[in-house]
Amino acid sequence: MPAWNFEPAEQEFAEAGLDPARWVGALTSMASATGSFGAVMLPLAGDALPNVPFTENLSGAMEAYFRDGWHAQDERMRTVPALTQRGVADDFDGHSAEEIARHPYYQEFLAPYRLQWYAGVKVACGDDLWAVALQRTIDQGPFSADEKDELARLSDRLSTGAAIARALSASAASGALEAFEMSGTAVVLLNRHGHVFKTNQSAERLLVDGIQIVKGQLTAKDAQATAALNRAIHTLLWRPTGGLSAPVALPRASRRPLLAYPARLSGSTANALADCQAMVILIDPDTRPRTPEMTLRSAFRLTETEARLATHLAFGNSLEGVADQFGIAKETARSHLKSIFAKTGVHRQAELVAVLAKLL
Asked: In angstroms, rounded to a whole number, what is the distance separating the alpha carbons of residues 226 and 251?
């Protein structure tokens, strides 16, 4: 049997459940413990998004995985039945040695990165199943039967960190909905498939006049509007960072169109295992208009001071000028701006102005 010590990796997985930024470190520890080149966390059903965590030395391969469409034709998904049943699987659970030697997935995608061998460890995460996909190079060779047995025993223990991550994300999503509801903002939350899984009461009140949720999708009677919203959501989910998309008008039978703003905040992009990966903010133009500050506080959970500062910047004022107007130090204004960047998912003031201009 392999003399592997999984305690550091298990600890890292538990900590990653509390802080999604630590998933990369957890995967690095797992790869090191098993003598692997690298590791990546992948869902076992449905498309993976580019925000899945992976070790840094796999960045080139993972860029190609999504860029060149290998995620949509991942041959290792053929090992899922064995992985689900036994808690572990490798390449030979889906392919023969002859198939591996000639299959494009192995020879055109993996071989240029000197990768070839894999072992997946099942990780249960709520209703979803994920896998820690350990990657070995051509020279390192495949995983032995003894190594697979050891990895199978690890499966349940790794699920703890994933369960923590899912529970915390569910709590955060509920808290966000409550905050939006208190401000009277209608919001629907979306999972990684782009499907609605939770709404607040303000959103439910707008599901009339042909606007409804059908099979997990927010739809309008106008098929073109529905298609436009689905495209906007798909583009947003595949964006590597957070942000706010341009509004999609959803025609209604007796009133002006409902405006749907797909949004993805920076926090959701860091946690691939979270239920909530995006949201759609619904604005009813027939309701009483709100002040710009209230809109920004509702959409991005800004503080009152942050919302005032962001509003002034969106209307073309300089940061220095706003600081003088507020009677605060420029360094304090910069600190507020940094917090605004984090909450709105942008990195520069010009990006912030572009995002806020769509709301104000």
From this structure: 10
| CB neighbour list of residue 343: distance below 8 Å, 6 or more residues apart | 265, 266, 300, 301, 302, 306
And the tokens for 292? 């710009």
Tell me if residue 129 falls in helix, strand or coil. strand
Instruction: Provide the token pair at 175.
Output: 């808290």
Distance CA 36, CA 117 (A): 9
CA distance 36 to 121: 13
The CA distance from 242 to 269, in Å, is 6
DSSP 319: H
Going by their DSSP bridges, the two strands 258-264 and 278-283 should be labelled as antiparallel
- Beta-sheet pairing, 186-190 with 88-90: unpaired
Partnered with residue 121 across adjacent β-strands are 88, 132
Rounded distance, CA 67 to CA 286, Å?
42
The per-residue b/e assignment along 265-300, b for 16 or more CB within 10 angstroms, e otherwise, is bbbbbbbbbbbbbbbbbbbbeeeeeeebbebbbbbb
**Contact at 8 Å (CB) between 125 and 166?**
yes
Q: 187 - beta bridge partners?
A: 281
**pLDDT, tens only, 107-154:** 999 999 999 999 999 998 767 789 999 999 999 999 999 999 999 988
- CB atoms near residue 209 (< 10 Å): 16
β-pairing, 88-90 vs 115-125, is: antiparallel
pTM for the full predicted model: 0.69
Closest to 38 in 3D by CA, of 17, 50, 24: 24
- CB-based contacts of 262, cutoff 8 Å, min separation 6: 229, 232, 233, 236, 244, 245, 248, 278, 279, 280
Residue 271 predicted with pLDDT over 80: no
C-beta of residue 359 within 8 angstroms of C-beta of residue 313: no
